[in-house]
Specification:
mainly beta, single chain, 24 strands, globular
Length: 404
Amino acid sequence: MYTKPQIKEYTIFAKIIYQLYVMKKTTNTFLRTFCFLLSAFALSAFCFLPLSVLAQQNIRDKFLVDKIERIEEPPGFHLTEYFYDEDNKLIKINYTSRFYQNSGWYDGKSIELFEYENNKVSKYTFRDLIYFIEFYDLYYYNSQGQLIREETRYTDGSLGTWSEFYYKNGIVDSIYCFDGFSIYPGYIFWHSIVPVYDENKNVVKAICTGPTTDLLGIPHPYETVVWEQFYEYDDKLKPNFGIDHLFAFDQFPGMGNVCIYERFLSHNNMTKIIQNGLEYYNYNYTYNEHGLPDTYQEFYLGYPKIPFKITYKKIEVGISSPTLSEQVFIYPNPTTGEFSVISCQFSVISIEVFDVFGRVQKPEVRSQKSEVELVMDISDLKAGLYFVKITTDAGVAVKKVVKE
């Protein structure tokens, strides 16, 4: 994930390359030669510069959260441990604790299990090993691999709460949340969220609609109110739990399931939640040498809670010589129509576009001669995520492209 200045820098650079590429087709011999040499120089610079940036920006993909523990004096402790499969997908969370409550010490212990279909979490199960409480969440996706529904069910299969997610231009545009439990027969409590994003793809505002409530917090079934919440963020990378696609799951212990969708739909770490001009929640972070959070602490109405420490495990030692995939670039990405495949070192022989289920969406486009660039038009495809199979004279690479 590039930072905003780097995105701007390389976007401008790529545009320069493209303009030079177009200009070198002019019939003026001198101008064509000049533009060819200059574009060759620009392309070579473009190919080498991102490699160092990749080493920095892809650092998040090199580290997975191993455990999170609360920073407190013994005998109290809260420890959350994360376990992954050989493909670095999160499969289990172990939670153990000892806490003081009502003049006594108590133990806590639970496990959380994740099941997958098509590399997406399809089922999440929570089991409390002390009080033997269990429930599970089911997740449903559309043909583009986007989460469209979340259900919470109990062991008897009864439906508790559920949420539905709607998309526009490839991002979540509105969310509807429902509660199956109601003191009013025949009425289902609900509220909606319309997220507003900034240029960094962080949710900076949520326009919410829901039932009014009385002084005890009991909703009125047929009266609605609209309110707004505002959010602020740092400019750092978020911790990697291996489930970026699952924005409906709170991956951090100790944050009380507050604004889950808004936090995990965003690219950076949320630092403030503001409503009616009042800062309800503040989140303070410290960062390690890689720019990843290594501690965080929640403040509610200015009152500090006990901080947490994050420990990471490295899943790849260092950065070796660049792979074929790292030396092939797609620009622009996301795109509304055409995109170019550019190779630093190799000739691009052909490109082909598939959907998330492996079905061909755009047939193979082959180069007529040895070229470092090929262009594909996907303006007729639906918005969503696609995979581009790129065949070069050095092998085959697969890259992602987002159609807006």
